[in-house]
Amino acid sequence: MIAPGHDIRVVACNVSFGTKVFPAGARAYVVMTNPGNGNDRVVILGRSRGGRWVKKWERRDRLSNFRTKTIPPEHPLYTRLGDGDGLASPRDFFA
Questions:
Q1: Helix or strand or coil: residue 71?
Q2: What's the CA gap between 5 and 3, in Å, rounded?
Q3: Statement: residue 57 has pLDDT above 70
């Protein structure tokens, strides 16, 4: 759980190849890595083609431009990403 009022650090990426759910180039946030040492797939949160927020397992080779991003409390995604629901730490992801 993230302490209220504090910035959260997340891993952001882009979808390289469009899928049925995400268009190519869509921004997504890594919310969970594969805990079984199989980091070939991660759970991402992103806007679907229809505009909904969707969590989906995705292959890492379909994602690109991984980077850390700071989300302040005023950001609309703060409550969605800050609930601690399996949120991937940048430290764990880039280790």
A1: strand
A2: 6
A3: yes
Mean pLDDT for 31-44 is 79
Contact 79, 72 (CB under 8 A): no
E strand or H helix that includes residue 79 = helix 78-81
Residues in Cβ contact with 77 at an 8 Å cutoff, skipping those fewer than 6 apart = 29, 71
In this structure, the number of other CB atoms found within 10 A of the CB of residue 41 comes to 15
Residue 33 has pLDDT above 70, yes or no: yes
Which neighbouring-strand residues pair with 62?
none
Q: CA-CA distance, 15 to 59, in Å (whole number)?
A: 10
User: CA angle 81-7-39, nearest 5°?
Assistant: 50
Tokens for 55, please give them: 């969590």
Per-residue pLDDT at 13: 94
